[in-house]
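Why does this matter for the project? Reviewers at the last site visit asked to see concrete outputs rather than summary tables. In response, this paragraph embeds two records directly. Each consists of the residue sequence and, immediately after it, the corresponding structure tokens. Nothing has been edited or filtered.
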Amino acid sequence: MRAAVLHEIGQDKLEVLDDVETVGFGPGKVKIRVRATGLCHSDVSAMNGVLPQPGPFIPGHEGAGEIIDVGDGVSGISRGDRVLVCWLPACGQCPACKRGQSQLCLAGFMNAGTPNFKRPSGDVFGFAGTGTFTEEVVVDAGCAVPIPDDVPFDIAALIGCGVTTGLGAAINTADVKAGSSVAVIGCGGVGISAIQGARLKGAAQIIAVDPVESRREAALRFGATEAVAPDALEDAKQRITGGEGFDYVFEVVGKSATARTAYETTRRGGTLVIVGAGAMDDNLQLNMFELFFDEKKILPSMYGGGDVLRSYERAIALWRAGRIDLESMITHRVALSEINEALDQMRTGVALRTCIEI
């Protein structure tokens, strides 16, 4: 079968090969025929080594498709079912799950160290234990979440990561208050979803911050009240908040420099939400006096900061009701053979989300 493979961490191109096979199918597993998958920035971060991932590997974790085989002991899923891929399934038994923080369950991460593909040359891993830049993938049954028949595969794929992450950051983690002021730094697919979440929660002012003009223009269509380049953020802070800072600031880039800017843009007593996934050696510096004196809340948001299955259901309900726009987030579509074009579209910032149709 065909799949897009990164041979070594640090390479910037994927090679589409036709000699890849799935492995690991058996009890508790399902095999999915992937129909659509989104390119998320985390895929690129894994390729360049910012996020830890053994190689060689197949990127992709934001996918949807059909069940083509079910292993022994699997219930609630049958051949032919339409599903989205959950890259962080909850085990339901660990302390985090029992506390109601299933987004912190580590069971899914254990899969990342086990190859779920092979080539004649040896084992191939799937990113985050999945790997959806391929025609078929074998995953734990908990990774396959059934979706209603009226949800297209491309929309379901978005909900599988970017939408859930961004919406959840605003709704679950920050719990944005009506009438508040919000700044979102980084307006790709996740940032746009955070903007939509802040709008749903009734934020009065939502400032989108991004260096790419097309993304700033898109942010206005999705609910931002103003969009500025990074060098204009301080001026916006002065104009809009009288220099005090915003009630909520979302950092959706994953770098210490933008997190520091976000901290300085948050008002005293306000809330900074860290959404971007960064490198383990990229350290954010804060001094002990400002932490005490400013009383700013720093809230990391992992996969939307809530139960992902409920978050999926909420996103579908909001989409059905026309409360969030997911179709317009897909600005580009490519075939699997054109995957490197999708990477270029992300790196240049021209795409909010590129859908790879398989």
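We now turn to the second protein, recorded in exactly the same manner.
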Amino acid sequence: MDLDVFVTAHRAEWDRLDHLLRRGRRLTGAEADELVALYQRTATHLSLLQSSAPDPMLTGRLTQLVARARSTVTGTRRSTWRDAVHFFTTGFPAAVYRSRHWWVPTALLSTAVAALIGWWIAAHPEIQAAIAAPAELREMTRPGGQYETYYSSHPAASFAAQVWTNNAQAAAVCLVFGAFLCLPVVWILFQNMLNLGIGIGLMSSAGRLDAFLGLVLPHGLLELTAVFVAAGTGLRLGWTVIDPGPRTRRVALAEQGRAAIGMAIGLALVLFISGVIEGFVTPSGLPTWARITIGIVAELAFLAYVYVLGGRAARAGETGDVEALDRSAVLPTAA
């Protein structure tokens, strides 16, 4: 593209659009129609410049001009409670449902890794000895030991808040840093499964696996599901960098990134619920069967929320992305 020729050919249109925008509401019907047409043409010019002849100063001017025109054409939009209701009843569950082909295999593989690590530690006393001294292992695994008292070591409210903060941070890292070719996500997943596998192995070797599972399952089912969803979404985001499909890498990454930000908000609420269960139910005096039942009910409720509400919304075309009016205009691409 010859930039000078392009600017000479379209400068009059840009100046005319700027003039109409400065007039604000004092436009006739014909001028309003002209403003819309000029806005659409200028947005196309901006896309062409960004893709073939990027010039910082010109791109900056047109970006500002298109933003002003878009605000004038579409009007100012304010978020309302309806947006929040729409997000939690449609957008978030649809986004989780649409990414199920990533987080379900992630969950299955990660669980298998944790089980394998647990079996390996339980079957090899020398590995247990490398983890801690025999006296320390007995202190951790005995009835009333560190594995059991951990959940009641702090007041329930502060413990739940601490757990929620830590898990939300881990989920956010998976979602945000997945764009770095998936590597941070794999590392965080491995760390979580390693810790779980060590607990399974040590408590199993002490003959107390049932007690361990009775403490982990009430909150762990929902908590780990949220982590797996975050990890799967992060992996999907990372794969978008590698293979954006028919879209440009910038457009594909922007679309997936916006959905990932929404997922972070929704998963924060899910992890808050699991944190409440971990802080108030796991260390409670309820029978083991009652605590596990609460965990199973919470997990089934989340899965029904995703597969029923989310599946219905996804089939209706919901993607979990922001509203069309809030997205940047892009050029169509050939399939």
